[in-house]
């Protein structure tokens, strides 16, 4: 879709070169959502592609409270296209990569979209039906955030999205990369979703991850709630009666009631844990 109100398009190679960020400015990554509907409030698009943040690499990691015991992490650049996750040659022992592939396929998007849409764009758009956010929460990922002054901060994935189209990003901040502990990539992951139709946005998403070494379990729910929630499933009795779901505020709208979303979320959790043989 054309955006006739856009007055300027900036192509930058260093975000610190931007000194006059103002209202009506927006970051442009893949643009698959940005150009899908009118954006009357926008005047300037800042193209992120020249920044070269599309890497997939294993890097040493230190000086972070979130990863005190972690030596290496998988770094996925914010502008990494979704198609690259499908094409990359992943180590066979990284079983959790199947979750990344499931997050791509869950979009039910054409290859044209997948070739342009980015990991960072999917996360920062912060839709309740976002496919990557619950996976990153389940894998205990951390997001690295930069601002125009060159300052860096890191936040746990479970704390990044706070509501529908709402994140903790401040004005002039941008997601730089996603960091996943390499050890967590060896976990077993199961990705479940349900919608009215396969091509429709999900009514509920459940992503479970299990560490086979100590059977530590992490389970994230999304789509049925405004922002991903990490569930505490340490007690077998909790898994049996699902009483904890009564305390969750599920979305209640024209597509599905809160009661229905809670029930299908429970079904997906059961399916997910069964697939993990828990």
TrEMBL record:
Residues 1-185 form the FAD-binding PCMH-type domain. Gene3D superfamilies: 3.30.465.10. GO terms for molecular function: FAD binding; oxidoreductase activity. InterPro entries: Diverse_Substr_Oxidored, FAD-bd_PCMH, FAD-bd_PCMH-like_sf, FAD-bd_PCMH_sub2, Mopterin_DH_FAD-bd. PANTHER family: XANTHINE DEHYDROGENASE FAD-BINDING SUBUNIT XDHB-RELATED, XANTHINE DEHYDROGENASE SUBUNIT C-RELATED. This is Putative oxidoreductase (Molybdopterin dehydrogenase). It comes from Chlorogloeopsis fritschii PCC 6912.
């Amino acid at each position: 879709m054309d955006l006739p109100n856009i007055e300027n398009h900036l192509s930058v190679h260093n975000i610190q070169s931007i000194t006059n960020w103002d209202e009506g400015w927006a970051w442009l990554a893949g643009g698959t959502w940005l150009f899908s509907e009118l954006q009357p409030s926008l005047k300037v698009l800042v193209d992120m592609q020249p920044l070269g943040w599309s890497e997939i690499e294993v890097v040493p990691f230190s000086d972070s409270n979130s990863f005190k015991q972690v030596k290496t992490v998988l770094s996925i650049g914010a502008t990494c296209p979704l198609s690259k996750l499908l094409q990359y040659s992943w180590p066979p022992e990284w079983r959790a990569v199947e979750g990344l592939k499931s997050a791509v396929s869950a979009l039910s998007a054409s290859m044209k979209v997948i070739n342009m849409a980015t990991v960072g764009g999917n996360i920062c758009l912060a839709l309740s039906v976002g496919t990557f956010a619950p996976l990153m929460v389940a894998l205990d990922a951390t997001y690295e955030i930069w601002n125009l002054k060159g300052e860096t901060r890191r936040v746990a994935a479970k704390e990044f999205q706070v509501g529908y189209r709402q994140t903790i990003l401040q004005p002039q901040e941008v997601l730089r990369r996603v960091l996943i502990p390499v050890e967590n990539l060896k976990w077993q992951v199961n990705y479940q979703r349900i919608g009215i139709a396969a091509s429709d946005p999900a009514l509920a998403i459940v992503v479970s991850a299990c560490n086979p070494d100590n059977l530590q379990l992490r389970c994230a729910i999304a789509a049925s709630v405004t922002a991903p929630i990490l569930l505490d499933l340490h007690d077998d009795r909790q898994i049996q009666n699902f009483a904890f779901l009564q305390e969750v505020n599920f979305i209640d709208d024209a597509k599905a009631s809160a009661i229905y979303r809670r029930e299908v979320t429970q079904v997906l959790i059961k399916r997910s844990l069964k697939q993990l043989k828990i």
